[in-house]
Write the structure tokens for this entry.
Amino acid sequence: MKLSNTEGYSNWNICEKKINLKQGANKIEFKANAELPSSLYIDCFTVDGVFDGTPAVVVGDGKLIKNLEVNDRENAADWSIYNDLSDGSKLYGDRDLTIHGVPGYLVNAETIRTACDSKMYTAELAAFTAGADITVYAAVDKRVDTRLDWLKSWTAVGTSMTTSNDVELALYKLDVKAGTKVTLGTNGGEGNSANYIVMAVPQKSASAAYPVITKVEYNEKNHQIRFTWSPVSGAKYYCVAVYVSGKWRAQTGNLSASTLTYTTPKNLVPGKSYKVTVAAKVNGQWTTKEATKHAVTVTVK
């Protein structure tokens, strides 16, 4: 551990060091391996971790989610991995609630079905290892999502899903490489909330055959929505479409290949939901089939 100088007694540095402790008594010592250039003062020495000697519960393996371990041992039996996520899928192992508004790109995603009661666990909740290069999605109760520190390294997708008891779960995503350990933090320990669920899908290559909507931004004042999508290699044009009255209807003309955003007209109806997609024209053909499979559902604010 390297310690740096501070400017005075009122200016303290925080130093952290991960160590492995054995069950039972442990002796922790500080020893200098060189002469110190100044005095060393240590205060607020804290050892943090799980010390009851009971390991996390190993739930099992999927194809993309490997070695899923749950620290909430009381509710770990209600966790599982499944592969057929869709509208109407059971959300939790300890509740009969179902999920609705699953975006096309997450249909049949490998999914961690958590226990709703795990929402009360206040430490690191679970962890798993990525079995391939994947994008991990977490659907988190909008009443608590902005207060969860572990989500700060994730990207807010801008869309959400809804439970059968009308709780809105905001989507967040994180790209990870094969072999990476993914840590899932606490849901906040609040009774008035629903626990999150987690999904994994293979990462899309840079030359994806359809535009992926990467960000959705809401203007509550003007009741508008702004969409941003990823570029498609070789695309000449893009077109934004909305599913209305059983049909896909184009909302734009041919947008240039350099255009990767679209903002709706003002004064959309608050609370109304729309299914939206973006298609690309590549080699004279529109990527309509793939685009409509990966539409997103948004609700006007």
Summary: DSSP finds one helix and 20 strands in the chain. The first strand starts at residue 57 and ends at 60.
